Structures are given as structure tokens and as C-alpha cells.
Amino acid sequence: MAKKKPQTKSNSIAKNKKARFDYFIEDTLEAGLSLEGWEVKSLRAGKIQLGESYVMFKDNQAWLFGALITPLMTASTHSFHDPLRTRQLLLHRREINRLRGLVEVEGSTVVPLELYWKEGKVKLAIGLAKGKKQHDKRATMKERDWNRDKQRILKNAH
């Protein structure tokens, strides 16, 4: 009998690939996320889009705007499920104050990078970011293409 390899299940739910392309990520933090029950079920099914989402500070709290969590068809029909509702980020006061100060003074922004499971809870990796100019994006694409071609060359050489 052949032995089966143990399945390693990724804890990642969704990644915001657009954020790393559009911004220079200077610092990352882990934040909890305040969710409703139907949202957790949708996350388990992978029904989330982080591409157009961003983090804002309002009333001394951090909020996630624009994250689309699509309700499942089996979700309750007697209550309204807003897929684009703002969700509160769970951060320590000193982390909120530090991020808010950097955003207001330096002109940085805070973007969500990845949503993942950690010990049964949903966590959001957020990054303090500065926007890239068009020539920076072209350099990123050129570097990515070169790395891909380099891997092909090395693969064919062996």
C-alpha cells in the first residue's frame, strides 16, 4: 500500500495581490476582524474579494471599507445581508494611534494584504503603504517577467 502524504491545508482565505503591485509596503500588522455569523460561513467557502478594499480611521477606531463578502445561498432569508458593510478592525489603541499618526503626517495609507485563519479566528494582515508611481509599476512588472524567464532558463539548463 502506498502511503498518503498528509494534506497541508493553507490558512489563507484571500490575498490582495493588487496592493503589493500598487503600493510599497513599509510595515505590516495583524488585526482581528469583527464579523457576523453569515460572513464567517462565506469566508469558509472563500467568497471574499479584497481588491478594492481599504482601511480608514473614524471615531478612534479602524474600519475595513469595500471588502466584498458574498452571502451564501443557504444564508437566512429573513434578515438582510449587506455584502459591502464596513467591518471593525480589532487593534490595540496604541497601534491605532500609531497608524493614524503615520497616515495623517506622512501621507501613507493602510491597505489590507491578506485574510487568513489563525487558531480558529479570522485575522487580517494590514500594511502601511506608500503609493507607487507609474514608472515604479513598470519596474515591478519588468522584474517579475525577468524572474519568470530566469526560472525557465534555469529549468531548461538542468
TrEMBL record:
Q: Which InterPro entries match?
A: SmpB, SsrA-bd_prot, SsrA-bd_prot_CS
**Where do the record's region annotations for Disordered lie?**
135-158
Supply the alphabetized keyword list: Cytoplasm, RNA-binding
Highest taxon of the source?
Bacteria
For bias kind Basic and acidic residues, which ranges apply?
137-152
Q: Which residues form the signal peptide?
A: none
Predominant localisation class = cytoplasm
Location comes to:
Cytoplasm
Give a single Pfam family match: SmpB
Coiled-coil segments, which residues? Answer: none
Q: Which family does it belong to?
A: Belongs to the SmpB family.
Tell me what this protein is called.
SsrA-binding protein
The opening ranks of the lineage are: Bacteria, Pseudomonadati, Pseudomonadota, Gammaproteobacteria, Thiotrichales
